[in-house]
């Protein structure tokens, strides 16, 4: 039985009412199963005695001491209470900032249990953060190993400790083990019920380690099982091998104003081999911004089209879909190809949409380009065979699945300019083959990156002016659309006015962001592309795919607020032509450690593969929001940077089982199959899901 099968709501637990359950929901916890899989980030050891003399900055004191005196710093209502305590080894002071009322519960002469971090300051041992209990009373929060959980909203550690303890005692203890005994033994795991107890209610500090290892293993094992089954399904639906016609593709290749790079040629070859094979393709194409993935996709698409089948290309934004539509139409026209391309846009009125949809259904359209929003249920294909998903990381699994369902067993090409770190490639994409374009088209110079502090941006503006005078174009990107007043941040709307009226009055400055209508966005980008606008002010909507070779400057203000992959994408908007390009990352004064590291990485390298690895490293463990933001997957417990060994074990074990029983059909594997279903259901609404096509009939 999998923990995911505990689907009772958290409100079934004592002490969890509407307020707490709302806060829990914010960190993805709605069921008791979710709660049991919310693991502590660390533990407080309130068992091992550490006397005052043993105090060190990273070693909290856990002792029994007597209150010997009170004193105050300052005077009047703002004065601060100091409680002097002594144990057998020494003396210390509890500094009660804002908590003078503690004088009553810490009277002179009383013996108390104390837990807190003491540091040497002003010749004495002081603690400002501490907990205590009357030593005469029976202990509630001492004499135990206390878990420390990631929190949200108004939740306190005590709320989570109580709720989780109840969940373990009432539900967790009944969880039976679904893993075959041999695996539990071979990998040194605990039965699941024991693992939950070890993690949430440990009685010694070394217990959680094995419990946690078990939960990590389980998570990764079921992930790998799902991947293995998905792959088995693809293999089962094999078709006769075939040889695809090359006529159209050769004509397009011959009409291009450039020669394909070696990497592009190799990748086209890899894709065609898959398209011709018996097993439908599942391939991930990664290549840095500007490496020329689109043409690779189009060349392969033409072979399928020439064989009489339909192809769909899905882009993450309307802007990008249009750009693909326009570029494709231009390229096909230049090559004199008689291929019917339809741009299924969100702004197409119903009267135009209807005939388009009919043409797609009848097979009159060969290639359909659009965003996920336009591949609605009413869009049916006559014989869709090949699905290409551009900037795949911008889509949720369900969005991808919606398009994939329109074909029976489509060939799938996922494209991404955010390379998947090696460690991640084994996870969600564990059953996909990977193609990489590592070289950029010849003649491109690497973008020069400069960091500038907020306050020094005048120099940046001046530099950009010289580029504008020389006939180049520039992007200015801001984290917000307009001034919300909440944060002192520059925003696109007000900076658009400033840049237009004060900084560059002699140049044409445009504005795009997600609240501008699609029509206007398209018009503005088109003007920029034609050079009628010199400067575009934007939010990160220009992050993906926009291609204007004459733009040489990318200025990102409040760069500290952008993630590494977003910064990398933004920088990729420039350096797409033959001119030297520049990226200016303007940051605010106070940087968090992670933000400083991100900027350092951006300054140090332009290699997208390296940036992806660094991104994973900087995010580090426990960054819930960050992991979700990464969009690939949301593992609850496992941290890939830490748990690679376990991942490999889990993969080996899962694939061993599937080799003998590819669909878990044997009675002995019924508990595994049930658990897998539960795990899939549990993750259905998270950005990460175990199955690409889980909702297909
Ligand atoms: P991305 O991989 O970021 O999607 P694109 O496919 O948009 O990159 O290509 C970026 C630009 O490079 C386009 O203008 C495209 O026409 C051009 N391009 C692609 N391949 C080559 C090549 N081999 N030589 C020169 N230019 C190329
Ligand atoms: Mg692209």
What features would you describe in this structure?
By secondary structure, the chain is of the alpha/beta class. A hairpin with a 6-residue loop joins strand 2 and strand 3. The C terminus is likely disordered. It is 38% helix and 18% strand. The two termini are 25 Å apart. It has a 7-stranded mixed β-sheet. A 7-stranded parallel β-sheet has the order 12-13-11-14-15-10-16, with helices on both faces. The chain has a 6-stranded parallel β-sheet with strand order 17-22-21-18-20-19, sandwiched between helices. Helix 7 packs across helix 22 and helix 8 packs antiparallel against helix 10. Magnesium ion binds next to helix 10.
Describe the structure in brief:
This protein is α/β, with parallel strands linked by helices and 697 residues long. It is built from 23 helices and 22 strands. The strands form four sheets. It has a seven-stranded mixed β-sheet with strand order 6-7-4-3-2-5-8. The chain has a seven-stranded parallel β-sheet with strand order 12-13-11-14-15-10-16, sandwiched between helices.
Keyword list:
22 strands; OB fold (Dihydrolipoamide Acetyltransferase, E2P); Rossmann fold; binds magnesium ion; alpha/beta; 7-stranded mixed β-sheet; 697 residues; binds adenosine-5'-diphosphate
Q: What gyration radius follows from the Cα positions, in whole Å?
A: 30 Å
Spatial order of the strands forming the largest sheet: 6-7-4-3-2-5-8
- As a percent range, the share of strand residues is 15-25%
Report the bound ligands by name, code or SMILES. adenosine-5'-diphosphate, magnesium ion
For the terminal residues, how far apart are their CA atoms? Answer: 25 Å
Determine the CATH topology of the domain at 247-437: Rossmann fold
Biggest sheet architecture: 7 strands, mixed
Helical stretch count?
23
């Amino acid at each position: 039985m999998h923990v995911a099968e505990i689907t009772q709501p958290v409100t079934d637990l004592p002490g969890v009412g509407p307020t707490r359950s709302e806060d829990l929901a914010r960190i993805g916890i709605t069921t008791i199963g979710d709660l049991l899989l919310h693991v502590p980030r660390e533990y407080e050891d309130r068992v091992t005695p550490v006397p005052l003399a043993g105090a060190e900055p990273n070693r909290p004191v856990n002792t029994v001491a007597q209150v010997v005196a009170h004193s105050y710093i300052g005077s009047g209502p703002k004065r601060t209470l100091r409680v002097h305590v002594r144990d057998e080894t020494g003396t210390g002071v509890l500094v009660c900032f804002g908590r003078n009322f503690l004088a009553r519960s810490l009277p002179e002469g009383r013996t108390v249990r104390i837990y807190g971090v003491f540091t040497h300051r002003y010749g004495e041992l002081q603690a400002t953060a501490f907990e205590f209990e009357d030593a005469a009373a029976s202990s509630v929060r001492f004499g135990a190993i206390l878990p420390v959980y990631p929190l949200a909203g108004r939740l306190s550690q005590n709320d989570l400790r109580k709720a989780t303890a109840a969940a373990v005692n009432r539900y967790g203890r009944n969880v039976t083990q679904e893993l075959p005994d041999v695996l539990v033994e071979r990998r040194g795991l605990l039965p699941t019920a024991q693992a939950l107890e070890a993690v949430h209610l440990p009685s010694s500090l070394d217990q959680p380690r094995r419990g946690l290892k078990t939960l990590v293993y389980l998570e990764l094992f079921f992930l790998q099982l799902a991947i293995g089954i998905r792959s088995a399904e693809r293999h089962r639906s094999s078709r006769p091998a075939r040889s695809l016609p090359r006529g159209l593709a050769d004509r397009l290749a011959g009409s291009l104003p450039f020669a394909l790079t070696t990497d592009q040629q190799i990748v086209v070859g890899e894709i065609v081999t898959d398209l011709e094979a018996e097993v439908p393709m599942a391939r991930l194409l990664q290549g840095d911004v500007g490496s020329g993935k689109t043409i690779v996709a189009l060349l392969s698409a033409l072979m399928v089209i020439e064989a009489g089948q339909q192809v769909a290309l899905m882009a993450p934004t309307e802007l990008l879909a249009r750009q693909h539509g326009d570029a494709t139409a231009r390229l096909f026209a230049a090559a004199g190809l008689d291929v019917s391309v339809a741009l299924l846009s969100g702004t197409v009125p119903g009267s135009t949409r209807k005939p388009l949809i009919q043409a797609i259904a009848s097979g009159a359209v060969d290639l359909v380009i659009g965003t996920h929003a336009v591949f609605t249920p009413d869009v049916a294909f006559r014989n869709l065979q090949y699905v290409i998903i551009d900037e795949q990381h911008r889509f949720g699994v369900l969005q991808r699945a919606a398009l994939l369902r329109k074909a029976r067993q489509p060939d799938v090409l996922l494209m991404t300019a955010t390379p998947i770190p090696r460690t991640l490639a084994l996870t969600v994409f564990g059953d996909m083959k990977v193609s990489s374009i590592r070289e950029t088209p010849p003649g491109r110079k690497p973008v020069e990156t400069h960091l500038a502090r907020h306050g020094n941006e005048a120099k940046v503006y001046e530099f950009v002016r010289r580029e504008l005078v020389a006939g180049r174009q520039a992007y200015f990107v801001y984290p917000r659309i307009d001034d919300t007043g909440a944060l002192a941040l520059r925003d696109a709307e007000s900076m658009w006015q400033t840049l237009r009226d004060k900084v560059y009055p002699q140049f044409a400055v445009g504005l795009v962001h997600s609240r501008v209508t699609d029509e206007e966005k398209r018009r503005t980008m088109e003007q920029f592309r034609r050079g009628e606008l010199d400067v575009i002010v934007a939010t990160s909507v220009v992050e993906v795919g926009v291609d204007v070779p004459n733009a040489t400057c990318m200025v990102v203000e409040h760069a500290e607020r952008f993630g590494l992959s977003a910064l990398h994408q933004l920088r990729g908007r420039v350096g797409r032509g033959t001119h030297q390009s520049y990226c200016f990352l303007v940051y605010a004064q106070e940087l968090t450690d992670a933000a400083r590291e991100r900027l350092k990485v951006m300054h140090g390298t332009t290699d997208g593969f390296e940036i992806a690895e660094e991104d994973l490293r900087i995010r580090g463990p426990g960054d819930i929001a960050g992991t979700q933001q990464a969009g690939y997957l949301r593992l609850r417990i496992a941290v890939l940077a830490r748990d690679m060994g376990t991942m490999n074990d889990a993969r080996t074990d899962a694939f061993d089982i599937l080799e003998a029983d590819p669909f878990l059909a044997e009675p002995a594997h019924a508990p595994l199959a049930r658990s897998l279903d539960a795990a899939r259901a549990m993750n259905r609404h998270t950005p990460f899901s175990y199955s690409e096509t889980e909702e297909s009939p």
